[in-house]
Amino acid sequence: MDTKAFKRSLNQSDNYHRKGFGHQADVAVVLESEYQSDLIQEIRDRNYTLTRGDVTIRLAESFGFCWGVERAVAIAYETRQHFPTEQIWITNEIIHNPCVNQRLRDMKVNFIQVENGSKNFDIIDRGDVVILPAFGASVQEMQLLNDKGCTIVDTTCPWVSKVWNTIEKHKKKDYTSIIHGQYKHEETVATSSFADKYLIILNMAEANYVADHILMDSTSAEAKLQRRTEFLTKFSQAYSIGFDPDIDLERVGIANQTTMLKTETEAIGKLFERTMMKKYNTAELNDHFQSFNTICDATQERQDAMFKLVEAPLDLMVVIGGYNSSNTTHLQEISIEHQIPSYHIDSDIRILADNQIEHKPLSKELEITKNWLPAGKIVVGVTSGASTPDKVVEDAIERIFATKRRSSDDSNPILSQTDYAND
To answer: What is the set of active-site residues?
Structure first.
């Protein structure tokens, strides 16, 4: 499939919309009332620090809604306003934030259900309105919706589209796209759909494995076959149809899921550059390796702010964002790497009574930790993923203040029952 020609044709269709419907001013008022926060602005104005009682909050200098997310949510709201009676669908969560997705459900935006691992597009009728989320959608989904005669509202983040353009450059010169990302993530699924040949790698360990394969010395036919079989088994869900590691890794280009850890994406790019230089020599590097900067500015800014925040004296960290949010998880990783007790929550309701918190450790299920706020004066670092509204961050901070205050009151027998009840 000529994906570039298809996208060009789709862009010219009267049924395709990418820039909203002229209701920006009305929607901006609604978004501000639902998602902005006076408290967060106050903390920004106080040099990202606020103290109440025994708690000092240190807020990352870049956090929360990025421009691409805000744009996607605004276009979704505009779509409902512009099509007040039409059936509206969305192919995935608009962003990885439960409260925003629930708000769309409240607005009668329907989410396409997944049945037996596949989306059920049969429920969509000709003329229905279908929103593509900030992560984008695969070329195959776009083609299906276009063939159905749907009105397509595309909220794909321009940074994601930039990665797709990079994939097209790889294809033009017959390069295999090595995509740093999670093969099940909506964005990576969409990105890989633009490639003729691709391999998705999750981390540096997998990148080193692939680099070793590229540099593998000549061995017996039996050993090569064994290695090839091992390779294809290891990446069984992460490569294009017909991918052959012994042939398709001779010319590679680097791309990434925009929410991945910046430092790791850069390290992976450098690793494959060195690998190709070692195998083919410097003079032939450009015939075997391509790399373009596809790291999202917003992701980079939030990660840089997190690295700065963890250098400050902190007793613990609270990271706020959807549990399926890749960029939020990477913020959590930074805190853990700096050995700071860290709690990933998706909303303030995870902060429970009796100084308990329900949170998600890395690569684990939800668990409850007791006495998570230490006694005495404490400094709490706070950040949030790019899909988290300021209002959600405000609610979490307010509950931290209240929890600490009540915990201190419980340890002070002089306080009356009336004082505690009025807290």
So the answer is: 187
